Amino acid sequence: MPTLERSVPVCRHLARLWMDAEDITDDSTRSAALLVISELMTNAIIHTNSLSITSRLRKAGGWLLVEVQDEGGPVFVPHPRRAGYANEYGRGLALVARSVQALGTRLETDGGRTVWARVSLTGSRHAEGFQQYSPKDQRSSP
Hints:
- The protein has a 5-stranded mixed beta sheet, covered by helices on one side.
- The protein has about 140 residues and is an alpha+beta fold.
- The chain has helices spanning about 5-20, 25-45, 90-100, and strands at about 55-60, 65-70, 100-105, 115-120, 130-135.
- The chain contains 3 helices and 5 strands.
- Helix content is about 30%, strand content about 25%.
């Protein structure tokens, strides 16, 4: 998908269609997945030099895995942080982290980066925190 800001709502729309087709009806799951997609796509657009960003959704057991892969760029590894009350930016990943069971990043062998989140298909929230993987850990996918 082109790295244009208007790509974010298109990606959310496509995610809704996919969740409909997969019969994912839990409101908490859907809301968390859409929040993850919005935040991760926006971060990839703003913080990387990517010409192309890929978003993937897949079901695995009782989980919905959401991934956004960029082409890399500045040495910036996303992580949740606390933003001050007056800060306009900086809360997105912290919000995402509170809405998912696990959140992490994986550096790809081609220099790209995948940020992923694991969302319960039943809407339960027991976050395990932010996890970071290097290319050698790629086989141990979320």
